[in-house]
Amino acid sequence: MKPVAARRLLLWLGAGSFWRTWLAAWLLLVGLMLCWTVASPLLSSPDEPAHSLRAVSLVRGQLLGGDVSGPGNQALTRVRVPQGYAQPAAIPGCFKHQSEVPAGCAYPAPGSSRLVSTTSSVGRYPPLYYALVGWPSLLTSNPVGFYLMRTLSALENAALLALAFATARRWGSSLLPSAIAVAATPLAIYLSGVINPSGMEITSAILLWTAAVVIVRSHPIRPPRPLIAMAAGATIVLISMRAISLLWPVILAAVLLPVAFHAVDWRRWIRDRWILGCSAAVAVVGIFNLAWIFAANALAVVPNYPVPHSLSAIIRYTTSSLPAQYQQAIGNFGWLDAPAPWLTWQLWTVMAAVLLTIGILIGSRRWRWTLLLTAAVGIVVPIVLGVAEAPSAGYISQGRYWLPILVGVPIVAAGMLQPRSEPVTVLWRVRLFVAVGVAVSQVLCFWWTLHRYLVGMSGPLFGLGHNPSAWHSPVPWYLLDLIVVGLGVLYGRYILRLGGFSSAAPLAGEALAQGAGQGRAG
Questions:
Q1: Are 379 and 174 in contact (CB under 8 A)?
Q2: Whether the Cβ atoms of residue 217 and residue 416 lie closer than 8 Å to each other
Q3: Is residue 323 exposed (0-12), middle (13-18) or buried (19+ Cβ within 10 Å)?
Q4: Tens digit of pLDDT for each residue in 385-430?
Q5: Measured distance CA(8)–CA(326) in Å, rounded
């Protein structure tokens, strides 16, 4: 592509309307997520065999499945699925948790449609995610069905994350698109392209944090209806992913309440039919999910190394594991057997720290405290929940579980800025640093994880395709690497371009009310 044509394309991508921005972001994100879809061996993502069985059985009418008797089996349910989906559950057994073992040891998946009985450890999870991604399994019982479900998951997750980018460009500060890119860690992009509700839990949380911060910061008097609808829709999706997901919007509301209390015109809000209607929809879905949790015993988990230690020992271990969980949240792929390169989580830490520092230095007093409270909650909640579950379930916490909270830190830090008072030169440099850091990190994580599956973590860096017994992705590895490099460059340029075309100034009809609300918020 000629340089002039490339510049025109980027201009078109960055300066368009809301839906043009959404479409461009969706295409880029779908590309990145689908690369992970085909670069990940069959059922190699966390608990993907169990999530696949849950999706396949649910779309065949088994809303819950039968109980499995025996101690420690409270979380298990028995289902009947085609043999082509049941037998592959053992495929990753030869390489999962073993970073030095390439994925080529796995045997081919069968393609039989004969119904067999099996069990799933996530059969009590809320049904929404599995209904959204499971229906392609009705078309085939061979391994293609797994890739179709992964593809559908990528398309849907990209749509949610693209809405967050479009919202930031339309209503947020110039730094907010960069913050969303930092919130969408390499692990979040990876999980979005496989069969796992954690991906949709994270992308819907990013959209909710973005919409909520923009509403409270820039539109506390009369929020635009699309913003209210996106916040409500994101909340509905978020609370329907896992049993514990009901907690995340409650934490978000508690964190933003101090600034919202002084900024929002509550009397206008409670008379607004659109706000009331969206709130009612969220309440109905919330009540359904709460009832599901109790009726299906959705909080039950398969015990993992029960902990007989004292409470003080559990607290010490849980606290000391936070750095490892933080690194997992940035990037530890597969069955926690493909950690991201050292440079990636270092870069990501610096990017998050820069955004946090910018928010503290430039934001108003109330928003500074809100930002610090958000960061503190991201530390305290994993400790409290980890300690609470350890005596019965063991040390089962992983970094991906806490991303729905952690994504709020960069989003609050960037979303709290006032567009008219932004130091343009400084923030442009920050946006440039984030764009480069995100692009480099996404590419590095993809290349390193694909290398792990081809030859093992300590395998040769070159000659990856010379072993005839090695695992082969549906797309040649060298082509995947080239595609991801190209998409990474476009993604970074796009993030930078979005901030440059931010249109956060209030609409003309809302300017007076916005100014009054912001004065009270400061």
A1: no
A2: yes
A3: exposed
A4: 999 888 888 888 899 999 999 999 999 999 998 765 567 788 889 9
A5: 39
